[in-house]
Amino acid sequence: MNTRKRGPVRDECSAIATPTAGFSANPNQAVTTNREVGIVLSPFSNAMSIHQGLWQIYQRHFEALFGIWLGFSPCLDGYDLGTYPNTICISQLCVALDKWISEGQGAHHYAANRSSGSRDTDPKEEQQINLSLVKAIHCFSARWLYLLDSTAIQRTQPLCYDTLARQFWRTTRRDMLKVINQTSYRSVLTLLLFGMTPLPVGLDEQEEEVDGLSGQLCMQIALGKLHELRARQKTCQFSGFKVLPSVGPGPLNTIADGNTAMEFIGAESAAYYAGMIFDTSASLTLNSRSLLSSGLLGFDTEPVFRLVKTQSRIFHENTEEWRQSDFEVSNENTSRITVAAGTWKFFVWKMIAVFKEALRDGYDDEVVGRVYTAVLDAINQFRITYRPLMAVCERGLQFLDWRPKFEWYNIMLHYHMGILILLDAIEAAGRTDLLPKLEKTRMESEQGVINTLKFGLEARCPVQVGHRMSNAVTQTIVPSIAKGTASFIAIDPYPHHIVASTQLVSKAIIREYRTGRVGTDAFVNLQETLVTALQHLPDCSKSVQIAREQLRRTMFEATQRLSDNGYPQTSFNIRTSLCDDFFTDTSHDQEHITERGTLLPDRATDLKRLQELITEINTAGLNELSY
Questions:
Q1: What is the pLDDT of residue 147?
Q2: Exposure of 410 by Cβ count < 10 A (0-12 exposed, 13-18 middle, 19+ buried)?
């Protein structure tokens, strides 16, 4: 096993110039930098280029993937689906809905936002709403900005990207108190994106992390506001805080054109379905109650999920011939199958969340048994309708474009993660009597997570990287764009699902190893896959750093037995280059890691200029919302 040592972190890695859509500076250029800030704060920094890089990451990876799921929403039956697969841009959708509301073309004005019933739109308020959304998008995307830097892909992730991500997060969270007092679809999306953004490393745990709104709270507030937008109550609304005037007629009363009415209904339904996806994911992973749909009492009559089941039945009938015989594994067919499987995965997640609610709230065995049967039925439906088609697609993935492969990877990882969460909930509740019916499913999902992670490490997607050529005499910068690649795991818009999957499957691997069902060689290979997966995730996420450390500890405990079989006891570095080997010496990195959280007091001027740069980057994104 290779135990090659990493040398100390080189200065130019942490003193790299401000990344402008992936452009790295000439290391010979004489500049003044701060190891903590790690950014050249010069008048030549290109805020527009950084914005374009952040927006590219958001659109190409999160919004494109999420938009395909929205486009297949069962709530859109009867609405113009366009070409298949239909893709809905969630940011454009929210802007369009708010425009309908503000102009009175598709919806009434929400008096909850203002004391008067006027429909006049305040330009400053509109700009503030847009700016908050831009900040949230930049903050969400900042952790992947290093992928647009050709030098960062080849070496360790530079510390300057940590600093940028941290400053974007601080700037965005300061806006959240304003955002929660605005009721608009753009505000909902702003809160949801911030809720998905992990805590960056280097924050003050005693003050900064707890001084403000948490991501989980922002997510819950966003879902509540989405429900408020959809309800549009005409009655008087009041609370201990204030009394709100009743609102005017709903959107259908103000639309004369039937086609426009249908367009608004479709857009509103898509936004609601987007909220349902976030709501179901939160109830599954955070043990919280669902805010937009029925929980244990009423899940079987929920309109959205009844539509999902109807859609699944139609898909099953239409693809019966595909399951009986071969079909062409094309980009279109693979996308059609993976998106349909993703919709049913959403239903499986809902059933698991409801089952966890039954266990958590102490319902009797009759209720638990009824919900457990519904979970088993949903899993069996996936196995019958979708798994055979996904297996055929898997055999032909190497001949497809990266986009359908990326969709396949995400759906399979999310489905198997949901099954492992189900098993973990059963074991935590001590209901081992329920496990026998899931033995086959357990084995499939434990193997499925490992195989999907391996595929995510090997498969590549294009990223636009650049090289900055700097003239030391004129101080001019001429960028040239080139194409690079990153692994699916490195660019996955849901890295927290990868973290959860590695933690859950790691427990299974250790369990199987201790019982003797997994041999020593297999154990080492499986753990190395998990280590590599975490190493491909962005370094600036605190949850990723914690997951790496937890895995390091569990590996150390488990490998104590391996040393008796001729394997050296080893550990891996918490922060490792994508190109380094898995097991490295950590002696050179302790100072490096310690410096991550150190804020040098004599660099206040640099930090002020950094904040000015962040402001310029956020302002540069306002034009993106002019749909």
A1: 87
A2: buried
3-state secondary structure of 149: strand
According to DSSP, the residues that pair with 477 across neighbouring strands are 470
Which residues fall within 8 angstroms of residue 321, CB to CB, at 6 or more apart? Answer: 327
30-50 per-position pLDDT tens digit: 333 333 444 444 333 478 888
Pull the structure tokens for residue 74: 């069962």
Burial of 594: CB neighbours in 10 Å, binned 0-12, 13-18, 19+:
exposed
**359 vs 371: CA distance, rounded Å:** 10
pLDDT in tens, 547-563: 999 998 887 777 666 55
Lowest mean pLDDT among 171-175, 246-250, 347-351: 246-250
On whether the pTM is more than 0.85, the answer is: no
Distance of CA 213 to the CA centre of its chain: 19
Secondary structure (H, E, C), 299-349: HHHCHHHHHHHHHHHHHHHHCHHHHHCCCCCCHHHHHHHHHHHHHHHHHHH
Give the rounded distance of the alpha carbon of 190 from its chain centre: 14
Nearest alpha carbon to residue 219 among 280, 134, 137: 280
Q: In whole angstroms, how far apart are CA 473 and each of 101, 271, 480?
A: 54, 53, 19
Q: SS in 3 state form for 450-488? A: HHHHHHHHHCEEEEEEEEEEECCCCCCEEEEEEEEEEEH
Read off the tokens for 528. Answer: 């190395």
User: Exposed/middle/buried for 89, CB within 10 Å: 0-12, 13-18, 19+?
Assistant: middle
Establish how many alpha carbons lie within 13 A of residue 222's alpha carbon, considering only the half-sphere containing its beta carbon. Answer: 31
CB 475 within 8 A of CB 44: yes
Q: What is the DSSP string of 23-72?
A: PPPPTTS-----TTT-----TT--HHHHHHHHHHHIIIIIIHHHHHHHHT
Rounded to the nearest integer, the mean pLDDT of the chain is 78
CA distance 370 to 199: 39
Residue 518: exposed, middle, or buried by beta-carbon count in 10 A (0-12, 13-18, 19+)?
Answer: middle
- 347-383: burial string, b at 16+ Cβ within 10 Å, e else: bbbbbbbbbbbbbeeebeeeebeebbebbbebbebbe
**Counts of helices then strands in the chain (DSSP H, E):** 23, 4
Burial of 235 (0-12, 13-18, 19+ CB in 10 A): exposed
Tokens of 167: 């400053």
